Structure prediction request, 463 residues.
Amino acid sequence: MTDGPGSTPDMPSGWAAEQPPPYGGAAGASGPSWASPGAGAPQGANPSAPHPSAPHPASPYPGTPHSAAPYAPYAGGQYGYRAPDAPRPGIIPLRPLTLGDILDGTIKLIRSNPRATLGLSAIVAAVTGIPAAIGQAISLGSLGDLIADPYSADTVNVPIAGLAAQYIGAILSYVMTFVGTTVLTGVLTRVLGRAVFGGRITVGEAWRLARSRVLALFGLVLLQALILLLPLLALAAVFVVLAAAGAFDSMGAATAGIGALFGLLFLLAYISYLLFFYTRLSLSAPAVVLEGRGVTDAMSRSWRLVKGDSWRVLGILLLTAILAAIISNVLAIPFTFGGSLLGMLNSGTTAGTVIAALLLAVGQVIASMITYPFQAGVTGLLYADRRMRAEAFDLVLQTAAAQNQSQGWIHAGVDDLWHPSYAAGTGAASGPQSGPYQGAPPYGPYGASGPSGPPYGPYGPQA
Prediction:
C-alpha cells in the first residue's frame, strides 16, 4: 500500500486476463487494459455519457442494441463496465424470464409460427370436437320437440335418447381429445424449442422430431392422471365397501353431519394435493420431448426443476388457466348461443341439427386453436426459465445464439442444446454427438470446461 497516487495494477487478484478499456480510453489503446473503478474518470466528466474517443460496439443481435452508455455509475458514484442487454434472437430474451416475458414469448410463438400453432391446433380441435357437437345438437333437438309438444305420449323417451347421444358424443370427444392434445403437445414443444433461437419449423419437421416421443407422452399423461385421481379412487373404494356393509342404511342426522364435515375436509385436502402434484409435475412434458427422457425420469426432472420455486410456478400456471378459460369462453359464446338456440328451435329436422352441430363445432375450434398453443407455450417457456434459473442454461443459449449470428443462419442442431448434458455441472463428453455443437462445453466457449477459463466470460471475476 502506498501514500499518494500510484500506478494501477495490471492484473487485480481474482480477475480474468481480458478486461474492457478504462474510462475514457479507446479499445486497443496501449497500456494496461484494466483500470480500477473510478481510476480513469476525468474531472468534471458526465458519468452517463461515453468518452468521444470510445465508439459504441455494434450489437451482434438484431433488435438488441447495446446501451448508449457502456459505463454506468456504481452505487456510491464510482464507474464500471455495464454488460449489454441479454440477446433476444427469438421469442424470448436469453435470460431468466419474468411473467411478462413468458406471456409475450407465447404470443410471439403463435404469431411467428401460425401454421404450426394455430393451424394444427384448429385441425385437432375440429376432429376431436365433432362427436361432442353432434351429440349436443341431437340433445338440443330432443329438448325442442319436448318444448313444442309437452303433452305428447312419446316425450318420456325423447330426452333419454337425446341425453344418451350427448353422453356418447362427449365420451368419444374426450378420448379423441386425449390422443390429439397429447400429440399436439409434442409438436408444439418442438416448435417452441426452435423458436427460442429465432428459427422456424414446419409441421412436418416438428412431427418427425416429436413422433418418437409420442408413446412416452401417452404414458406420462396416463400416469399423471392416475396420480392426480388416486385420492378420489381411494375414496370411491371406501364408499363401495361401506355401502356393501350396509353402513348407510341406519344413518342418523348426527352421522350425516359428521359425514358432511369429513367430505368438506377431504375436499380441501384434495385441492391442496391436486395443486401440489400438478405444480411439481407440470414440466414433465417438455422434459420428455426436448430432453428425450422416459416417463418417470421426466417426472423426477420436473420435480427437481420446480423445487424451490413452487409458488411462482403455481401462480403462473393458475393465471394461464384463468386466461385460457376467459379467452375460450369469450370466443365460443356467440357460436354456442347460436347453435344452442337453433338446436332447440329446429324441431328435430336434419338440416337444423347439422347447422346447430356446425355452429357448436366452430365455436369449439376457434376457442381451442388459441388456448391449446397458449397453454403449451407458457409451459414450455416456464420450463426454459426454470433451467436458466437452476442450471445457468441461459449461458448455453447465449453461446448458441452468438454462433448462429456469426454464421448467419440457424442450424437444426440447436435442438440438441436442450439435452440435459448442457446443464450446469455436466461435462461435454456426455452431450449429444451430432450437429454443429458437438463437443461444445456446457457453458459455451466461456464455460468452466471451456478454453477461456472464467465461467462468466472474459469480463468478469473468476469463480
The chain has eleven helices and two strands.
